[in-house]
Every structure is written in C-alpha cells, then in structure tokens.
Amino acid sequence: MSDIHLNTDIDFFTLVSKRFKGLPVLGSAHFTDIVNSYGGGEMADHLIRFANNLNPNPLIGYQWPKYTLSAKKVATYIDGLIPVVTGTDDFREEAMSYLTEITLAYPV
C-alpha cells in the first residue's frame, strides 16, 4: 500500500476502542466510545484537550502518539487498570491490500 499519502503538515491522532468486548451478543459496540467521551472518561479529557489545542496530550499522563505511515501508532482504549495503551494499526493490512488490488483490477 505504498500509494497512500499523508499530509505531514497536519498532526493526526487515531484510536481503537476495545472497551466492553465481553458484552453478551454485542461485543465491543459502537456506542461504548460515546459513553467514555461524553460520560467523563479518559476520552472526554482527550477530546477537550484536542478541541482546545489540536493536541489530546496532557502535560503528565498517557501520551497519545501522532499517527504516521511509518509507525502507525494508535491509542487503544481497553478495560482494566491501565485504560489506554499504544497499539499499532496493522490489524487489517492484508485485507485492505487485497481490496485495493481487486478495486484496481476491476474498477467500478
């Protein structure tokens, strides 16, 4: 996927929410990040700082890494004592590469 371009003049921050994956039937449902964002969780703090400074990071505490094509680091919100960890956005690379090949081979 070397044809992907990212404007390096803009800071990008991305996240994955893996909260509440144990919910029966639902798994990790879409609304769980909304509850954390607007219900006073860590996402709310990050959202407020990002809206004010275009940077979600506090002076002290978890430092949300900037997303780059070389590192592909993401903030991963999880259940447990350490609620935010840094992950790598590589969980769909093979599938996305296949879809790109098919789309280029058979354009709509």
Short characterization:
The chain is of the alpha+beta class and 108 residues long. The chain is built from 3 helices and 3 strands; from the N terminus they run βααββα. It starts with 14 loop residues before the first strand and ends with a helix.
In DSSP terms (H or I, runs of 4 or more residues), the helix count works out at: 3
Structural class: alpha+beta
> Oligomerization state of this entry?
single chain
- Silhouette: globular
Distance from N terminus to C terminus (CA atoms, Å) equals 20 Å
* Radius of gyration of CA atoms, rounded to a whole number: 16 Å
How large a portion of the residues is in β-strands, by DSSP E?
5-15%
Question: Describe the biggest sheet?
Answer: 3 strands, mixed
Secondary-structure element series:
EHHEEH
User: How many domain units?
Assistant: 1
On the 0 to 100 scale, the average pLDDT is 87
Q: Which residues form runs of ≥5 with pLDDT under 50?
A: none
- The counted number of beta strands is 3
Give the proportion of residues in helices.
25-40%
- How are the strands of the biggest sheet laid out side by side? 1-2-3
Please give a structural write-up.
- There is one protein chain.
- The longest helix has 13 residues, at 93-105.
- The mean pLDDT is 87.
- This protein starts with 14 loop residues before the first strand and ends with a helix.
- It has helices at 31-38, 42-53, 93-105, and strands at residues 15-17, 73-77, 84-88.
- Helix 1 (31-38) crosses helix 2.
- The chain is 31% helix and 12% strand.
- It has 108 residues and is of the alpha+beta class.
- A three-stranded mixed sheet has the order 1-2-3, with no helix packed on it.
